[in-house]
Design brief:
The structure is a homodimer of 600-residue chains.
Chain A lengths: L7 H11 L16 H19 L3 H7 L2 E2 L5 E2 L4 H10 L18 H14 L1 H20 L2 H13 L3 E5 L15 E4 L5 E11 L9 E7 L12 E6 L1 E3 L5 E4 L2 E6 L10 E14 L5 H37 L23 H33 L3 H36 L11 H11 L6 H12 L6 H17 L6 H24 L5 H36 L4 H17 L2 H11 L3 H5 L9
Parallel strand pairs in A: 3-6
Antiparallel strand pairs in A: 1-2, 4-5, 5-11, 6-7, 7-11, 8-9, 10-11
Helix pairs in contact in A: 1-2, 1-9, 2-5, 5-6, 5-8, 5-9, 6-7, 6-8, 8-9, 8-10, 8-11, 9-10, 9-15, 9-16, 10-11, 10-12, 10-13, 10-15, 12-15, 13-14, 13-15, 14-15, 14-16, 14-17, 15-16, 15-17
């Protein structure tokens, strides 16, 4: 059975030492997040994820969820008890607002925990993850009464939440939604329609499920401008707020999926269910994006999470499994063969994983901090700067993070050779689970278009210009540290490729917008490479400083410098190749008639 | 349910028009392979694969194989009947020697059929595939009596074969084999040991299974120099050659795997089973490599095969599924949304697939032709040249072909969005099935070391020098064709990167062999990029000539030229990035102590 240990030390390094969140102690919520407190939370959170949740991962994959003929859904053995423990320990409340029972801690801590939970068991982590998303929409767009009725139970985790967007004919293009919402005399709406791919749509973990549903009112415009958002509780609330009458919403079927078997992916049928409008009619898309953006960062974390747990198990195997001899001569001559670790190509895969995982963790946690600063920073200017950056980085964290997360999980399976293909060993589950993260919450091609079509041009490119400046400054300052000068030079070059690609879009997308579409995915990857390079420089500078002052833990910091160098050598060269692909434009890509793709 | 149509037209284009096998008509076996005959074989083979075998693919995945308590194994519904039809139609005999019942046709035709069969149903295709490999070892290393007793039934497909290498403690490193072979008074050997991951080790398709087993005789050297190869039939043969007494070999368990569920992956227990030595004692490794090399080309074909069938189903979906609008304005304004095909990022994935699949098909079929020329070419010089090239290209076809095949299958699943993750739609099966090809028959890291450590330095680099010259010549000649000049320039540049990387190994691997190991995988990918570039130039020249002479089918040839251009734009830039990674060497990769990989 695969094992998992939360990378608490590494998360602590990033939060306390690299991002130095102590410096924000004056901001709301940050005062409590002292270095010691952060350390304790990470340790306890890591223990919970590793000891309570991780042991259910393989069970969840094998059993999956089951739907009875009455539409009720049973989660895999142990999920219910573990979820009760999750609620009892208050893990869902970490960064939620105190007025609804939250602990009011910085989001960055909840983000760190999200990684641990998702590594331990992605399917399990999705139940509270979706609750979070639903709660965040009510928190921003709900009425005071809605907040009071729903948020305390959702934030505690006593009730869970869902997000109902997709319909059979409607995925990315939400303008195609057909679910109807007909106003009723009492101010509620009757919701009728079918939603598919609804994660955690029905289950036995909680006594109530609060569905957030996109639907169209009868006279709404037939486009994304005609979408409204509704709260549709599984059980309507009594006056006192307790669950009362069963609402006309039910799970019609469970999907059979490649992975995340432990999470119930439901077809949800709404048959005149009672729904309550959130915010204004026809303004549902904006509310949906609140759920979406938080969810996208969480999904990026999932990419990292599967890469991390797969990496840990590949490391164990590479240490234990003996096969062949080192190219430089037997490393352990008394044994019949050397451990896999001696083979450069095994090292390559492990170092790629290490460089990606640690860099991605830093990027995602920085993203968490930016989310905090959007709300909490002292000045409007700082809040705006944080908002610009996180807006730009969200599609990168989601898209690059999950593309690479899947690639790393696949490579870690490769380290296991034939044994990686065998279900019992668990490596192939990591790959299957990681696969969904590239698809849901906006497929990665949609992320790429969000980045290139929306985030780049916004405010005349203000966000990306700020990002360029940030990277250049980091490179310049890092060049003076000899252990980092190679990475700094390479990072600067990669940043130059990103700038050139940006310029190319500016010059060529106006005449033909397909030129932007044709390069968007590559651009997202360059942005990912540069972003992780930035984080590796920051980590490297922190490590170099720690080594210089001799704070102890020298091996840890030395490994950071070596991995930073490796990152520069093996990740940054792709930026130039990607830029050249972008500059090829859309012509050959779009030239063929559709018939040319038919097999003859 | 996914669909499949064999790309017979494309295979015919490659065999008849690009490789022009008509020119070899004077060589043994080639006389029959006239263009018309090739066309007919491809059409009938394609029909058989698509109509008889493909419909069983999803059934096989869902049902898997089942083992009864007596060790017998049942294949999924329909496999037995389909296999009987396979045998009755003589599909296994295509390129086998006439003296044992084969049709004696060029291997290239059997290769083309292998792709179709594997696209239709990889699990099914493995049964005859393994038989082929086992037969080839007997054909080269067996005694005349062994050939006479086993080959006719194996070549007809009446009996199947297996290859038993792997043991629990022994994968790549065959020196670790523990299975014992004790000589008996009658000249046979008693074989005892456990073999794992034995594909098609036990099943209900054939009345006998001929296992080829690597084992060690009692006084053999404890290394790869002490391995012998044995024939161990499931049923020992009577004097008249009919299956007689049950041998002491049995299936102890079936593995539960990520994919290829329709193929029985067995733990095989040998309990003093009667085995017959093939060739000489301690010379088993050489015989094994005969099976291996043929198998590796076949596995490369599997990478292409899954990419191809996944591509076909992604194309269908992209034509039918409507979501969003073209960036350039509504393509079909009367519909509520445009088909996915209008979106550049969807096109990118489809064009990547098209460029890889058609290029890879050309490379693999050229490989098939080279296998023929190794045996059949008129002069020793030509035979040697063919042998050099196919030796060099085998790890490229296997390693690059399966890495990219998996990547393409994953991207084709991505085209389907959320629906690609749903089992019923079949896209995720292609990914799971494709995954094994990167692992078995020598994991791709082993292929990379075979290329860099064995094939490059052999005969002072004769093979790779010949390859460089071939590519340069093709580039020079193609530059004169305007539609190909961009690809020719880019191909020449990529070939330059390959030369530079080769030179770098020569200069740096002597002092530290890890420098070769650290870059081997990247080198294999550059070699793949250059090889497919070579094939695209050849295909492009053929297409340009056909267009110039107006032979008809202009859309087909025009699509080749456009796809060739796309290949140059989107595949060749990676060669430079890979070279830079190689030149980073092994230092940072190998620097960290193993403890630095432990999670803290």
């Amino acid at each position: 059975m695969p094992s998992y240990k939360a990378p608490s030390r590494d998360a602590r390094f990033i939060i306390n030492e690299v991002l130095k969140i102590e410096q924000y102690a004056a901001l709301p919520g940050f005062a409590a997040a002292t270095p010691d407190f952060v350390e304790t939370v990470l340790e306890v959170a890591g223990k919970f994820a590793a000891e309570v949740i991780a042991p259910l991962n393989q069970i969840g994959d094998r059993q999956g969820c089951t739907r009875a003929s009455d539409g009720s859904v049973t989660t895999p053995d142990g999920f219910k008890e573990a979820y009760a423990q999750f609620v009892a320990s208050g893990w869902g409340t970490l960064s939620q607002p105190p007025e609804f029972g939250g602990q009011g801690l910085p989001h960055i801590l909840a983000f760190a925990f999200e990684e641990f939970l998702s590594s331990a068991n992605q399917s399990f982590g999705m139940y509270p993850g979706l609750t979070n998303g639903a709660a965040s929409a009510i928190l921003v767009k709900g009425s005071p009464e809605q907040m009071a009725r729903y948020l305390p139970k959702m934030i505690s985790g006593e009730w869970t939440g869902t997000k109902n967007l997709t319909e059979p004919q409607c995925g990315t293009d939400l303008g195609l939604i057909r679910t109807k919402a007909v106003p009723q005399a009492d101010g509620s709406y009757a919701i009728t329609g079918t939603k598919i791919f609804i994660s955690a749509g029905e289950h036995d973990l909680a006594p109530n499920i609060i569905h957030l549903v996109l639907a169209k009112t009868p006279d709404a415009p037939d486009s994304t401008k005609g979408i409204s958002l509704f709260i549709v509780p599984k059980f309507l609330l009594n006056e006192d707020g307790s669950p009362g009458a069963r609402n006309a919403v039910s799970c019609g079927a469970l999907e059979h999926k490649m992975g995340i078997h432990g999470n119930a992916t439901c077809v949800m049928n709404y048959d005149g269910a009672t729904g309550f409008l959130v915010g204004e009619e026809n303004k549902g898309l904006a509310a949906m994006f609140i759920m979406m953006n938080a969810a996208r960062l969480g999904v990026g974390m999932q990419g990292l999470a599967q890469a991390e747990v797969a990496y840990q198990n590949a490391v164990s195997y590479a240490r234990e499994r003996r096969q062949g001899r080192a190219l430089t001569g037997p490393a352990e001559p008394d044994e019949k063969a050397d451990p896999l670790f001696v083979h450069p190509d095994v090292r390559r895969m492990l170092m790629d994983a290490k460089a990606f995982n640690e860099g991605m963790r830093a990027l995602a946690l920085w993203g968490g901090l930016l989310v905090d600063l959007v709300h909490a920073a002292a000045s409007e200017e700082e809040r705006q700067a944080a908002d610009d950056l996180i807006g730009l980085l969200t599609p990168v964290i989601k898209g690059y993070g999950t593309d690479k997360g899947y690639e790393v999980a696949t490579n870690m399976q490769q380290v296991w050779g034939g044994h990686g293909y065998i279900a019992e060993n668990g490596m192939e589950q990591f790959v299957r689970d990681a696969r969904i993260a590239m698809i849901y919450e906006g497929a990665n091609g949609v992320q790429a278009m969000d980045l290139v079509g929306r985030k780049l041009p916004a405010n005349m490119g203000r966000a990306v210009q700020a990002f360029f400046a940030l990277v250049d400054k980091e490179c310049t300052e890092s060049k003076e540290i000899s252990a980092l000068s190679d990475l700094a030079t390479r990072g600067e070059k990669a940043n130059g490729e990103l700038k050139a690609a940006t310029m190319w879009f500016m010059q060529n997308a106006m005449t033909n917008p397909n030129n932007a579409g044709a390069g968007a995915h590559h651009y997202m990857h360059i942005a990912g490479i540069v972003s992780l390079g930035l984080m590796w420089l920051r980590m490297g500078r922190t490590a170099a400083a720690a080594l210089a002052t001799g704070t102890g833990d020298a091996a840890f910091y030395q490994a950071k410098l070596t991995t930073a160098r490796y990152y520069g050598e093996r990740f940054t060269p792709d930026a130039g190749a990607l830029r050249r692909k972008i500059e090829a434009g859309a012509e050959a890509m779009m030239a063929l008639p559709v018939e040319a793709f038919a097999t003859a």
